[in-house]
Amino acid sequence: MKTQNIYRHMAEKVPEMSKAYKKIAHYILENTTVVPFLNVAALAKKAGVSEATVVRFAVFLGYSGYPEMQTHMRNSIQKQLTTTDRLKMTADVYNDQEQWFYNIFNDDIENIKSTIDQVDIEKFYQAVHMLETAKNIYIAANRSAAALGIFLQYYLHIILGKSEIVRSVENLSEQLYNLGEKDVVIGISFPRYTNSTIQTLAFAREKGAKTICITDSLLSPLIPHADIALTASSQMPSFIDSFTAPLSLINALIISVGKERMDEARARLEQMEATWDRFNVFYLKGDQG
């Protein structure tokens, strides 16, 4: 049922639907490239039904709720959507001159709520333990996700002193040739997923290293190559990726690792503060120039 194309499944179920469900189905089937990026409230408004009806509609189709149905809709179209398609979608969705600015913030709020709802806290703490006991940590994050990778690497290096970015597939042989079971490789990627990140994680798994992925859903192509998968919602009907929720997840990961290695982190930071003072790294009131 759910494994087949969601839109075909939806169309086949139309004869069994109530009047309200048909309104939702018709709107979705007529706007397949836009709806996967709408939250419950937005879809309900556009279909002319209540938010509760949208949630019940998802359950009627066999999903646990709207987030799962939305994930399946996104995965049905993500390979078809180019950046140009997403640019056009931005204009279609954010077309309300009065509301579009606020809708962007509301979409990010929904992403954070969705991430909190779907987090596997046991897996999260397993990832924390894996990082704080790792011999070396390597982070693969490319294209727009590189910003997340750099942020994570910066703070893990401050806390643990043993993390680095895998810059490209071409550098794999130089950086990861001696990977072992005590090393951890983190892959970060969101739709449209980058092949280089997937290949890096797959290579790390082959070498026997522990692997963690930070991605958008359990349908992500990174999942088969990860010992631990951490998911965060990145949905936004725009040509850019929304990394508000993924960054919040990474913040939680960094803080948790820091709490576990508090004494080591404190000693390292004290040494760094002395170096920062020596080279006058930070602005102080009264500085000239």
Brief description of this entry?
The protein is an alpha/beta fold.
Summarize the topology.
Elements: H1 6-13, H2 19-30, H3 40-47, H4 51-60, H5 66-77, H6 83-93, H7 100-118, H8 121-132, E1 137-141, H9 146-160, E2 163-165, H10 172-176, E3 184-188, H11 195-206, E4 210-215, E5 228-231, H12 244-260, H13 262-278
Give an overview in words.
A five-stranded parallel sheet has the order 2-1-3-4-5, with helices on both faces. With 289 residues, it is an alpha/beta fold. Helix 8 packs across helix 12 (244-260). It has helices at residues 6-13, 19-30, 40-47, 51-60, 66-77, 83-93, 100-118, 121-132, 146-160, 172-176, 195-206, 244-260, 262-278, and strands at 137-141, 163-165, 184-188, 210-215, 228-231.
- How does the helix and strand content classify structurally? alpha/beta
Q: Please tell me the overall pLDDT.
A: 84
Low-confidence blocks of residues: none
H and E string: HHHHHHHHEHEHEHEEHH
The percent range for helix content is 40-55%
Shape: globular
Amino- and carboxy-terminal Cα gap: 66 Å
Give the neighbour order of strands across the main sheet.
2-1-3-4-5
Please tag this protein with its features.
289 residues, alpha/beta, 5-stranded parallel sheet, 13 helices, globular
